C-alpha cells in the first residue's frame, strides 16, 4: 500500500508538469491554472519516473530529466515556457540495469574544488539491482553540453587474464559430471526452448539448466583440482536461490548412526559409503558416507529417526535422492565451491538471463583439493542457473555492479535527489533510508522508513578516477553535546573491548575515529552493543581493502530474509591509515569512510537498552590513533 501511494505521488508529479503551469512563471501571478493543451509531453509510454525540471542558464531554458524506467534510459527535454517541450537526447542503458531506473538527478560539480574543471553527475536510482541488493542510488560522471549527457570512460578494469578451467566450448562437458537432466547432455548454444534471450556468455557454449522449460533438476560437478591461484573467476546468471549454510545436524561420516535410531532393516547398522550391491551408481553426496536404504536389493523397510532437537533456524536443508519424492521448488540453485567435500563459497544469478562476472577468493584454500559444482534443485520461477568461463587468476573479476558507481553502498539509501540553488553553490543530497526488499516489513510503528542525514556532495579524484563523495552537512555538528568521550590511543590485539567506558554509550552518537594499520585482518568499532550479543559492526577488512557494516546481529533481523548481512564498500588506506565517521541513531547507522568516498547506510533495530560502543581487532593488531564520541541532541523538541 505504501509503495502504491509513493508511485501514485510520483506519477502525479509528471501529470502536474503536464497539466498545470503556474502563472507566476509567466506573469507573476501565484494562482495555478490548468493548461488546456494537455499533455504538454506525450512520452509514448506509461513506464516513466520522477521528472526533474530545472533552469539551464546557458540556453535560458527549462531542462527536464526523466527516467524511462523499464528501458533503463534517461531522456532530456528543453522548454522556454514550460508548455512547449523539445526532446534533446537519451542516455542509457548503462551501468547497473537489474531493476527499474527512477528518480534521476543531473547537476554540475567542480572536480577537486577546481572551478575550471567541472563535470556533470547523472544520478539514476535503481530498484532492484543495487550493489547490496534491492534499492540503491547509482551515478555516472561525464559531460553535459546542453543537449546530451556523455558518461566518461573511467578506466574500470577488464576481467583479468588467467588459466581457463572450463569454457563449455566442446560437444560435451568433458571431465565434468552431470546428474539429473537439468544441464542436458552438454553445453547449450545460448537460449533454450521457452527461455528468454540469454546474453553475456563468451564463445558458443555455456552451462544452462533451463532444459525442459526449467522443470528439471540436477548438478554439474568439476573433477577435483588443487587450488593454485588466488581467485576463481566465472560468469554466472539465472535465478537467485542461494545455498544456505547452517549447522550440520548429521553428515553420516561416522561408522555408525550415532544417536539416530533405526527400525527395520532398510538402513543397516551404519551409513553406506556409496553404491550398495546391485545398485546403480550413487552420486551427489558429500564426504564419504550417506544414508542409503537399498539394502538387500531394495527389499528392506524401516525408519531412521534423529534425536529430538530445538528448532532455532527457519529451514532444514538436506541432500536427497532415490525414489520419486521430489524436493519441490524450494531447493538451492547455485554455483558452489567444495573444499574437502564441504560447501565453502556459493554464488547465484540475479534473476536475469544475462551472465555477469563473479569471483571466489581462493586464498584460504591454496594447496587444498576443491571442486566446482553447479546445483539446480529449484523448479519455481527463475529456477535455473547459467555459467561460463571458469578461470583461475591472480586478481578478481568485477561484476557490472562492482564496476558501476554508487552514491552509497548500504542497503538503505534510495531515491537520492539533490537541491537546486543551495546557498554558496553547494550541492546537498538526501536519500530515503529504506529498501523495497523489506520496506513493508520493518518492525516499526506507526511509520516505516526515514530520510538520511542531508549530505554535501563533491567530486574528488580517488585512485585516478573521479568519484562522487559525500559527508554529513556541517549543521549536524551543531547537534553535538559538549564534553565528548575520548578513547585512549593504543594498540588493540585480538580483542573486543569498551571504547571509552560508559561515557561513550548512547543511541544517538557522532563518532570520529582513525586507525593505523598493523597486521590485523579486520578491525573497527561495534555500536549498539548489549548483553544478549546484539551488535552492529563497522569494520575494515585489510585482506579485501573494504569498509563494511555487519548487521547480522544488530537486533531484530528476522522479519525478512534479505535484511541480515554484511555490506561492503571499497576503501584504500591513505598513508597507512583508515578514517571513519559514524552517525548512530536509534534505528540506523550512516558510515563515511576516508573523505567520503566509501559510504554505507543501514537501518538497525536493536534493543533500546543496547547502547554500548566497543573497539575490536581480529587476527592481529591495529593501532587506534584517536576516537571521539559526541552525544547528539534531537533535531526537534
Structure description:
By secondary structure, the protein is mostly beta strands. Helix content is 5%, strand content 41%. It is built from 4 helices and 40 strands. The strands form 8 sheets. Strands 30, 31, 32, 33, 34, 35, 36, 37, 38, 39 and 40 form an 11-stranded antiparallel β-sheet that branches. The longest helix has 18 residues, at 2-19. It is globular and about 90 Å long. The model is unreliable at 1-26 and 324-330 (pLDDT under 50).
Topology:
Blueprint: H1 2-19, E1 20-22, E2 32-34, E3 48-56, E4 61-68, E5 73-79, E6 85-91, E7 100-111, E8 114-127, E9 136-144, E10 149-151, E11 162-166, E12 177-180, E13 207-208, H2 211-214, E14 218-221, E15 225-226, E16 231-238, E17 261-264, H3 295-298, E18 302-305, E19 333-339, E20 342-347, E21 352-361, E22 369-376, E23 385-393, H4 400-403, E24 405-406, E25 414-418, E26 428-433, E27 450-451, E28 455-462, E29 465-472, E30 485-486, E31 490-498, E32 509-517, E33 522-529, E34 536-541, E35 546-550, E36 566-570, E37 577-585, E38 588-593, E39 598-603, E40 612-631
Antiparallel strand pairs: 1-2, 3-4, 4-5, 5-6, 7-8, 8-9, 9-10, 9-24, 11-23, 12-14, 13-23, 14-22, 15-22, 16-21, 16-23, 17-18, 19-20, 19-22, 25-26, 26-27, 26-28, 28-29, 30-40, 31-40, 32-37, 32-40, 33-34, 33-40, 34-35, 35-36, 37-38, 38-39
Shape: globular
Helical percentage: under 10%
Largest β sheet strand count, sense and barrel closure:
11 strands, antiparallel
Radius of gyration, rounded? 28 Å
Structural class: mainly beta
Mean of the pLDDT scores?
Answer: 89
Amino acid at each position: 500500500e505504501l509503495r502504491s501511494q509513493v508511485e501514485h505521488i510520483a506519477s502525479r508529479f509528471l501529470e502536474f508538469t503536464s497539466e498545470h503551469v503556474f502563472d507566476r512563471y509567466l506573469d507573476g501571478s501565484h494562482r495555478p491554472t490548468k493548461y488546456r493543451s494537455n499533455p504538454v509531453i506525450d512520452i509514448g509510454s506509461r513506464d516513466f519516473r520522477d521528472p526533474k525540471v530545472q533552469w539551464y542558464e546557458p540556453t535560458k531554458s527549462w531542462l527536464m530529466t526523466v527516467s524511462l524506467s523499464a528501458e533503463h534510459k534517461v531522456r532530456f527535454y528543453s522548454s522556454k515556457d514550460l508548455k512547449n517541450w523539445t526532446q534533446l537526447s537519451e542516455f542509457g542503458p548503462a551501468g547497473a540495469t537489474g531493476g527499474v531506473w527512477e528518480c534521476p538527478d543531473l547537476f554540475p560539480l567542480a572536480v577537486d574544488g577546481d572551478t575550471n574543471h567541472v563535470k556533470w553527475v547523472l544520478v539514476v536510482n535503481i530498484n532492484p539491482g543495487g550493489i547490496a541488493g534491492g534499492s540503491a542510488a547509482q551515478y555516472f560522471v561525464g559531460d553535459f553540453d546542453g543537449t546530451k549527457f556523455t558518461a566518461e570512460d573511467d578506466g574500470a578494469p577488464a576481467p583479468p587474464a588467467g588459466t581457463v578451467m572450463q569454457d563449455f566450448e566442446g560437444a560435451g562437458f568433458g571431465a565434468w559430471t552431470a546428474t539429473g537432466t537439468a544441464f542436458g547432455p552438454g553445453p547449450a548454444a545460448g537460449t533454450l526452448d521457452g527461455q528468454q534471450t540469454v546474453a553475456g556468455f563468451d564463445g558458443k557454449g555455456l552451462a544452462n539448466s533451463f532444459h525442459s522449460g526449467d522443470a528439471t533438476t540436477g548438478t554439474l560437478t568439476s573433477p577435483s583440482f588443487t587450488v593454485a591461484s588466488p581467485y576463481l573467476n566465472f560468469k554466472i546468471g539465472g535465478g537467485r536461490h542461494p545455498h544456505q549454510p547452517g549447522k550440520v545436524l548429521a553428515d553420516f561420516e561416522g561408522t555408525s548412526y550415532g544417536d539416530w535410531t533405526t527400525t527395520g532393516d532398510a538402513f543397516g547398522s551404519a551409513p553406506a559409503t556409496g553404491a550398495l550391491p546391485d545398485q546403480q551408481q550413487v552420486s551427489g553426496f558429500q564426504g564419504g558416507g550417506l544414508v542409503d536404504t537399498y539394502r538387500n536389493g531394495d527389499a528392506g523397510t524401516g525408519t531412521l529417526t534423529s534425536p529430538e532437537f530445538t528448532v532455532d533456524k527457519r529451514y532444514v536443508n538436506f541432500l536427497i535422492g532415490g525414489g520419486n519424492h521430489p524436493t519441490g521448488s524450494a531447493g538451492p540453485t547455485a554455483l558452489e565451491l567444495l573444499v574437502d567435500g564441504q560447501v565453502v563459497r556459493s554464488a547465484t544469478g540475479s534473476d536475469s538471463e544475462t551472465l555477469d562476472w563473479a569471483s571466489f577468493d581462493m586464498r584460504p584454500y591454496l594447496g587444498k583439493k576443491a571442486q566446482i559444482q553447479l546445483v539446480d534443485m529449484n523448479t519455481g520461477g527463475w529456477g535455473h542457473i547459467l555459467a561460463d568461463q571458469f578461470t583461475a587468476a591472480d586478481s578478481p573479476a568485477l561484476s557490472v555492479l562492482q564496476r558501476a558507481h554508487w552514491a552509497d553502498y548500504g542497503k538503505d539509501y534510495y531515491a537520492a535527489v539533490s537541491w537546486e540553488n543551495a546557498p554558496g553553490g553547494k550541492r546537498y543530497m538526501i536519500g530515503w533510508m529504506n529498501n523495497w526488499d523489506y520496506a513493508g516489513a520493518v518492525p516499526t510503528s506507526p511509520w516505516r522508513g526515514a530520510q538520511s542525514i542531508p549530505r554535501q556532495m563533491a567530486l574528488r579524484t580517488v585512485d585516478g578516477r573521479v568519484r562522487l563523495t559525500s559527508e554529513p552537512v556541517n549543521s549536524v555538528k551543531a547537534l553535538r553535546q559538549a564534553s565528548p568521550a575520548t578513547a585512549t590511543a593504543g594498540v588493540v590485539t585480538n580483542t573486543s573491548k569498551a571504547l571509552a567506558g560508559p561515557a561513550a554509550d548512547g543511541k544517538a552518537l557522532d563518532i570520529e575515529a582513525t586507525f593505523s594499520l598493523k597486521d590485523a585482518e579486520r578491525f573497527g568499532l561495534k555500536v549498539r552493543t548489549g548483553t544478549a550479543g546484539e551488535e552492529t559492526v563497522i569494520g575494515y577488512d585489510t585482506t579485501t581493502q573494504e569498509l563494511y557494516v555487519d548487521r547480522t546481529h544488530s537486533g531484530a533481523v528476522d522479519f525478512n530474509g534479505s535484511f541480515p548481512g554484511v555490506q561492503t564498500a571499497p576503501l584504500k588506506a591513505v598513508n597507512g591509515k583508515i578514517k571513519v565517521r559514524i552517525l548512530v541513531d536509534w534505528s540506523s547507522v550512516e558510515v563515511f569512510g576516508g573523505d567520503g568516498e566509501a559510504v554505507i547506510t543501514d537501518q538497525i533495530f536493536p534493543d533500546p537498552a543496547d547502547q554500548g560502543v566497543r573497539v575490536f581487532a581480529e587476527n592481529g593488531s591495529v593501532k587506534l590513533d584517536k576516537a571521539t564520541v559526541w552525544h547528539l541532541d534531537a533535531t526537534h523538541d
